[in-house]
Amino acid sequence: MDASVQEIPERLLGWYDNHARSLPWRAPPGLPAPDPYRVWLSEVMLQQTTVAAVQAYFAKFTQRWPTVMDLAAADDADVMSAWAGLGYYARARNLLACARAIAARGGAFPDTEAELRALPGLGDYTAAAVAAIAFGRRAVVIDANVERVVARLFAIDTPLPAGRKAIRDAADHITPDDRSGDFAQAMMDLGSAICTSRSPHCLLCPLSAACRGKEAPERYPVKPAKKAKPQRGGTAFWIERDGEVWLMRRADKGMLGGMRALPDDGWNARADGNGEPPLAGEWQAAGQVEHTFTHFHLSLSLRLYSGSVHARTANDDGEWWPVTRLDEAGLPTLFAKAARLALALRRDD
DNA sequence: TAACCGTGGTG
DNA sequence: TCACCAAGGTT
């Protein structure tokens, strides 16, 4: 093996000792691990989500639910509302399920990767990350940063996903027995600040001497082409009475599952909505909201009910919500946009 | 295996 | 402006 490859862990940890980002869920390099609850919570929030987006949510959750026992005892609706805006809402449902599983075993997280992997919402990455960061276990932690850094270090040009086997073997090879949590976080910091996806800064990289891909780093890893996102259309409905608006609770499975929402006409990723309002009467057009999800674009028409509303609007799962407290309803971003539009229109009246 | 599942930043 | 991207997991 190339001598420079053997030096990777030491070089990277040396860089990390001086350049580690200071984050609320992280212990400074070399210091004792933070509370496993905070490590786990941050890792789940950080799945496919930027550090900048997570910061405020992490502060809110840890202030409101300081321990995993507190979180386990929370109401589902409160947790879903607190997660609103962060996206990938299955994470919040799994977060609660996991917290309750931990509470059922006394409040202590398991300290091995295999046991962690069996918990809801913890896949290969998160189980390895928590085992390494919170419990000091040696684990091969592979996220998109590590994937990119390792593919470049070893010039692995097998297209993903097939290339993941070689990437994992290489990552395993350079993961040290000691400080594997710091090593994982160092790889992620390096990927975030130096070995970035679009414009890597090889001149600043502590691993450039060992890097076989530095001549053309943007070549790695080789990714498959993305599918085009279809354009869909749908309608959301604003029904207001006595300063309250009718909100639904979406089904647990599928898009925006478990979240509060405006009633809609059944639009989804595969089909436009049918345009049918939830109750008969007079409706007025209130404009459009454009929103892009992971796999499709949506042009949402907002319609306002202009008739009188009886006590019961629909026989579905819903509730009247005070318009002045809409920011507390925990609407996902699409419906928060629609609500903003409706409120702007009201003010103009 | 591949489709599904949010959102905000960015080059 | 817009396609790409991010500390992925589930089915």
TrEMBL record:
Textual note on the cofactor: Binds 1 [4Fe-4S] cluster.
Listed cofactors: [4Fe-4S] cluster
EC id: 3.2.2.31
Catalytic activity: Hydrolyzes free adenine bases from 7,8-dihydro-8-oxoguanine:adenine mismatched double-stranded DNA, leaving an apurinic site
Gene3D superfamilies assigned: Helix-hairpin-Helix base-excision DNA repair enzymes (C-terminal), Hypothetical protein, domain 2, Nucleoside Triphosphate Pyrophosphohydrolase
Keywords: 4Fe-4S, DNA damage, DNA repair, Glycosidase, Hydrolase, Iron, Iron-sulfur, Metal-binding
SMART domains per UniProt: ENDO3c
InterPro entries from the UniProt entry: DNA_glycosylase, HhH-GPD_domain, HhH_base_excis_C, HhH_motif, MIG/MutY, MutY_C, NUDIX_hydrolase-like_dom_sf
Class of this enzyme: hydrolase
GO molecular function: hydrolase activity, acting on glycosyl bonds
Annotated Pfam families: HHH, HhH-GPD, NUDIX_4
Domain HhH-GPD: 45-193
Reported function: Adenine glycosylase active on G-A mispairs. MutY also corrects error-prone DNA synthesis past GO lesions which are due to the oxidatively damaged form of guanine: 7,8-dihydro-8-oxoguanine (8-oxo-dGTP).
Family listed: Belongs to the Nth/MutY family.
Annotated protein name in UniProt: Adenine DNA glycosylase
